[in-house]
Amino acid sequence: MGNDITITKASGSWTVRAGGAVLGETDAALVLSEGAYPPVIYFPRGDIAMAFLDASDKTSHCPHKGDASHYSVVTKSRTLKDAVWSYEDPKDAVAEIKGYMAFYDIDEIAVEQI
């Protein structure tokens, strides 16, 4: 894959929480490693409580992965703007992440192996 991207199945179970709520839990997470960046856990969309997410107008482009759609996380106390991304139609080299979502590493969101 270009830019030293590797995608592997994450071992064990993973959870993502925000604002005291569990947004998702899965045994089918993927780990995407890209160059010197920290690894990112991707959750299957079907394992995420989409009721907590609002689609955003924001998009971003990665020359190696394609165009990402963004979502905001709505908690009881606030909205975490553009805190989630997903590649709806990723490039062929990273096709495994289609249908998966990743969360930005911010204080209000916890992605943890359980």
Summarize the structure.
With 114 residues, this protein is mainly beta. The chain is 0% helix and 54% strand.
Can you tag this structure with a few keywords?
single chain; 114 residues; mainly beta; Metal Binding Protein, Guanine Nucleotide Exchange Factor, Chain A; seven-stranded antiparallel β-sheet; three-stranded antiparallel β-sheet; 0% helix
Structure description:
This protein has 114 residues and is mainly β. It has strands at 5-9, 14-18, 21-26, 30-34, 40-44, 53-62, 66-74, 79-86, 100-103, 109-113. It has a seven-stranded antiparallel sheet with strand order 1-4-5-9-8-7-6, with no helix packed on it. A three-stranded antiparallel sheet has the order 3-2-10, with no helix packed on it. It has a single domain (2-113), classed as Domain of unknown function (DUF427) (Metal Binding Protein, Guanine Nucleotide Exchange Factor, Chain A, Beta Complex), CATH 2.170.150.40. InterPro entries: DUF427 (IPR007361), DUF427_sf (IPR038694). This is DUF427 domain-containing protein. Residues 15-105 form the DUF427 domain.
